[in-house]
Amino acid sequence: MAHRKGRLEDRLDEEAAKYTSSLLFDREILEAVVYVNAAHLKALARAGVISWSECEEAVNHLADMLRMDIDYTRYELEDIHMIVEDYLASKMPKAAAMLSLGKSRNDAVVAAVKIRLRERLISMAEALLGLVLTLLKRASEEADTLFPTYTHLQRAAPATFGFITHSYAIRLMKLLPRIKHTYSLCQDSPLGSAAVAGTSVGLDVSYEAELLGFSKVCENALEATASREFIIDALCLCAETALVISCLAEELVLFSSEEFQLLELPDSLSSTSSIMPQKKNPVVAEVARTKAAELLGLFSSAYLMAARQPSGYNLDLQQITPKLWKALDEVEETLAIMAKAVEGVKVNRERAALACSPPTAVVELANYLTLKWGIPFRQAHNAAAAVSRLMAENRLNEESLKETLERYNIPGGAVSMEQLRELLEPGKVVRRYATPQSANPDKIREKAGVMSYEAERELRWFKEEGRRIGEKLRNLLGSS
Ligand code: ARG
C-alpha cells in the first residue's frame, strides 16, 4: 500500500477515517482522476523523471481501473486519489512513488471536478434543450388552441396553450448562456498549483492542460486550489433551472385539477390513491415542483460551506463537491421527465375556450371605444367594467348595453351587441393581438419555428463539444 505516514505516529482512527473520507462521493470523479494522473505521468516522462515506456505501462494500468470494481470503502486511503496511487503502487511501485511529484490532491481534485463538471454541463444542456424543443413543438401544434392566462390567479386575457409553452421555452433558453458561462469557468487547468503556492518542479503544465482539454493554465495557484465559485455558479444555475421547472410543474398540477379541468396529464405519469379509486394524482409534476426547494438547499448549503474559508485548501471544500453532483442529477432527471409530461399533456379544449369567453377579453371593448370613438381610455374602461358586470349577471342585451354606454357619456350606438360579440370572441381576440410578443398564433408559430432551429443548432454545438472533449480524454489513455 502507498502508505503516507508523514509526521504522524498513529494511524488515523477508523471512525475518523470514514468520517473525513470523500470516497463515497468520489465515484463520480474516478474517470477524471485517472485522466489527471495519466496527464501527470506524461508530464513526468516529458521532464525525464520517468521513462516513456514506464509512463506507457503506468497509463495502461490506470486505464484498467476504469473497468475494475473499485472498493470505495477503503476509508483509510481517504480518497480516490490515494486509491489510484495505491493501485499503481501494487503494479509499478517506482512510477507510483513519483505520482505526487509536483502534484497535490488539492490541485488534482479541482482538475478532476472541472473535467467531470464539463461533461455534466454538456448533458444538462442536452436535457434542457430537449425540454425546450418539446415545449416548442407543443407551441407550434397548439398555437391556435385557446387557453386562458391569469394574473393574481384570476382570469386575465385569452391566449393559447402554445403561447404558454413558448413562454417556458424562452425561460429555459435564457439559461443556456449561463450553462456556457459555467462551462467557461471549467477551462483553466489547476495542475502546477500543487498544494497551494505552485511548485519548484518544472513540469510542462501547458502540456498537461492541453492533454486534459483545458484551454489555458490557471493564473494563480491559491485561487485555483482554494476557490469553489465555479461550483457555486453551477449550483445557482441548477437552482434557477429548477425554479423555472417548478412554475411549469405547478401549472400542470393546478390546471389538471378537478376545479380547473383545463389540462389532462397522461395516465403513465399519474398515480392513483390507495383508498380513493376516483383519484388521478399528478405525482410527477408534484415532485418536479418541489425540486426547486431541494436545489435551493443544495445551493445554499454549498454557498455557506464555501464562505469564510481562510487562505488555501481546507477540508470543508471537499464537502461541497457532492452537493454539485446531487444537484446535477436532480436537475437532469427533472428536465427529462418534464419533457415527457409536456409531450403528453392534453388540453381540454372546450373548457379552455370557455375560460377565454366573455367577459375575459372585455378590455377589447374599452380599446375599441377609445380607438374608434376617441373616448378617453379610463372612461371606456369604466364603461367596459359595467358591461362585464352585466355579462356576469346574465343581464346584457341590446337595451342594457345602450343604457350603460350612455351612463358613461358614450353614444349608445357606439357598439352593437353583434359588434361586441365579435370584439370579445376569443379566437378573434388572439388573432387581433398586434404586438410582436403577443399570443397571436401566427407570431407564436413563427417564433417557435425560428427558436427550434436555434435550439437544434445549440444542441449540435454541445454534442460536438462533448465528442471533442471525449475523444481528447480517450486519446490520453491510448498509446502514449
Ligand atoms: N478528497 C479531497 C477533496 O475531494 C481532496 C484531498 C485534499 N486533502 C488534503 N489533505 N489536502 O477535496
Automatic annotation (TrEMBL):
<feature type="domain" description="Argininosuccinate lyase C-terminal">
    <location>
        <begin position="363"/>
        <end position="430"/>
    </location>
</feature>
<dbReference type="Pfam" id="PF00206">
    <property type="entry name" value="Lyase_1"/>
</dbReference>
<feature type="domain" description="Fumarate lyase N-terminal">
    <location>
        <begin position="6"/>
        <end position="297"/>
    </location>
</feature>
<dbReference type="InterPro" id="IPR009049">
    <property type="entry name" value="Argininosuccinate_lyase"/>
</dbReference>
<dbReference type="Pfam" id="PF14698">
    <property type="entry name" value="ASL_C2"/>
</dbReference>
<keyword id="KW-0028">Amino-acid biosynthesis</keyword>
<dbReference type="GO" id="GO:0005829">
    <property type="term" value="C:cytosol"/>
</dbReference>
<dbReference type="InterPro" id="IPR008948">
    <property type="entry name" value="L-Aspartase-like"/>
</dbReference>
<dbReference type="InterPro" id="IPR022761">
    <property type="entry name" value="Fumarate_lyase_N"/>
</dbReference>
<dbReference type="InterPro" id="IPR000362">
    <property type="entry name" value="Fumarate_lyase_fam"/>
</dbReference>
<keyword id="KW-0456">Lyase</keyword>
<dbReference type="InterPro" id="IPR024083">
    <property type="entry name" value="Fumarase/histidase_N"/>
</dbReference>
<dbReference type="GO" id="GO:0042450">
    <property type="term" value="P:L-arginine biosynthetic process via ornithine"/>
</dbReference>
<keyword id="KW-0963">Cytoplasm</keyword>
<comment type="pathway">
    <text>Amino-acid biosynthesis; L-arginine biosynthesis; L-arginine from L-ornithine and carbamoyl phosphate: step 3/3.</text>
</comment>
<keyword id="KW-0055">Arginine biosynthesis</keyword>
<comment type="similarity">
    <text>Belongs to the lyase 1 family. Argininosuccinate lyase subfamily.</text>
</comment>
<dbReference type="InterPro" id="IPR029419">
    <property type="entry name" value="Arg_succ_lyase_C"/>
</dbReference>
<protein>
    <recommendedName>
        <fullName>Argininosuccinate lyase</fullName>
        <ecNumber>4.3.2.1</ecNumber>
    </recommendedName>
</protein>
<dbReference type="GO" id="GO:0004056">
    <property type="term" value="F:argininosuccinate lyase activity"/>
</dbReference>
